[in-house]
Amino acid sequence: MNLQVTSTDYLSILPPTILAVFAMLVLVIDLFVKPERRPGLAWLALIGFVVAGVAAFALINQRGTGFHGMIALDPYAQVLGLVAIVAGGFTVLTSFNYVRDRNIGRSEYYALLLFSVSGMVLMASANNLIIVFIALELLSIPLYVLAGFARPDPQSEEAALKYFLLGAFASGFLLFGIALTYGALGSIDLTVIAAKIGQVGSSPMLLIGAGLILVGLGFKVAAVPFHMWTPDVYEGAPTPITGFMSVGAKAAGFAAMLRVFGYSLHAIQADWVIIVAILSAATMIVGNIIAISQTNLKRMLAYSSIAHAGYILMGVASANQTGMAGALFYLLAYTFTNIGAFAVLTAMARPEGENQTFPAYRGLYKRSPGLALMMMIFMLSLTGIPLTGGFIGKYYLFLSAIEARLYWLAIIGVLTSVVSAFFYLRVIVDMFMREAEPGQEVKAVNYAPLNWTINLTALATFVLGVIPTSALALVQLAAKLLMGT
Amino acid sequence: MSNQGFVDLFPLLIGLCGVLFTLGVIGVLVRRNAIVIFMSVELMLNAANLAFIIFARALNQIDGQIFVFFVMVVAAAEVAVGLALIVTIFRTKQSINVDSINSLKG
């Protein structure tokens, strides 16, 4: 065996390495600066995200594999890597004041964020199931800590414990699935699996293995019936971290799911498409229906995030190029929209205490018109109204389901979108048309980095909806190269 | 162990992995103590490790045994974080019974 390390090897792990190096820099420099200057390390973390983002963007046209086929170097990996990096960068900007106001602004916060994103980027480029497992743990373990970072706040601690126990439970399923896949095919290299499966076809052991992998990843992306942890964890975790989890962990989970099912197990799609389609339908229905009855905006967005996992699962179930490109575009649009929405929630979190119930948002248009307007864009995009990124993403996902002849799934998708309009528009109605009750006028905080995030993500949501051409070309290229036709 | 002996034992060994994994899953679902739940998760991971080793022997490859090392390292990292979280919550609640940790609902 040739044990030389080539430049392709280094290039393939360049973005996650940059993130890990910056994470360690943050930890080390923290020891040598005066305590009052430590919050400035957030800017170092932000520089790390920018550098890693530039690196991922520069690698977007590279093709190949590193470390004997362990890590893939392709547009697919870079697109989803960029999604995670963008989510991480914006999270630094939203966290800046939130952590200072709550006295949880330790440098480890940013180091853990960088480590978690490096796991997500690695997940997007994993070309071997053992790398999928390691990347999943690398992204999850920092997230468990970040969810509980607001300790001794009991809700935050509870969120961390629940996330940890169920996350570890899910990785157990994933690992056993990987072991069975290894036993059935003699390899867990995704390229080798794709080649072998065409020859040997499916076997019961392989199908059980694939099913367990689906369960493990289903937990991570919060698909029904593996979603029980989501509302509690999202509600209890610090608000910027909730926004980060809802997009980053989801993007990473779908990165692995699309590569494993859309690429490696594509040849036996007849065996798994119906299962994923049922998961998708259940996720859309349960997520949207339960979201209606929520009184807390953070919790409503948690159920909304479950529902959106259902829409993206539709792209997985379609098992065609439109589905994969649609899922990638949806993740991109959803990242900007949801990070923005959670940034608005962060702006509504007063230093003296957080009130995320609907009454707190009543009459927000009178108090901060700009914020209410941006929140309206995010809510419209989550509903899937034209001129927003969410609409283009949903359009492509429904189209892919129709191309795959899953008409019933597309119909459920459209119907649940209509249902979702109810609770997204209720936020808009509360903000614009109702008066706050006396004594309930929660004033939004006004911090520059937070406002940049909200404005930039709203702009991106809008741009993706109006001129999606170049982003669509990119995701279509990524899907085409991965699925190889 | 001779090869013939291994071939005879193979279904039993795989069955053992399945039983260990199932015990882990049941443990997570029925036990209410956070530490015991966590131990059950470790049982699931170790069932997978055992499966890796058995398959590596059956396929006459070294790969499966290498994976076990990766998994052990990851599991150790997870233990460090998990126990720290459990200690933190014990300090606040004086209990690690997951039924008593239920302030988030809806």
What number of domains of chain B?
1
Neighbour order of strands in the largest sheet of chain A? 1-2
Average pLDDT for all residues of chain A? 93
CATH topology type of chain B: Helix Hairpins
Shape of chain B: elongated
The total beta strand count of chain A reads 2
Q: List the uncertain runs of chain A.
A: none
Helix content of chain B: over 70%
Count of runs of 4 or more consecutive helical residues of chain B: 3
What does this structure look like?
- The complex is a heterodimer of chains A (485) and B (106).
- Chain A has 485 residues and is mainly α.
- Chain A has one domain.
- Chain A is built from 21 helices and two strands.
- A two-stranded antiparallel ribbon of chain A has the order 1-2.
- In chain A, strand 1 and strand 2 (71-73) form a beta hairpin.
- The radius of gyration of chain A is 21 Å and the shape is globular.
- Chain B has a single domain (3-93), classed as Helix Hairpins (Orthogonal Bundle), CATH 1.10.287.3510.
- Helix content of chain B is 80%, strand content 0%.
- Chain B has helices spanning 3-30, 34-59, 63-93.
- Classes of the chains: A mainly alpha (485), B mainly alpha (106).
- Chains A and B meet through helix 6, helix 7 and helix 10 of A and helix 1, helix 2 and helix 3 of B.
List keywords for this structure.
heterodimer, A: 485 residues, mainly alpha, two-stranded antiparallel ribbon, 77% helix, globular, B: 106 residues, Helix Hairpins
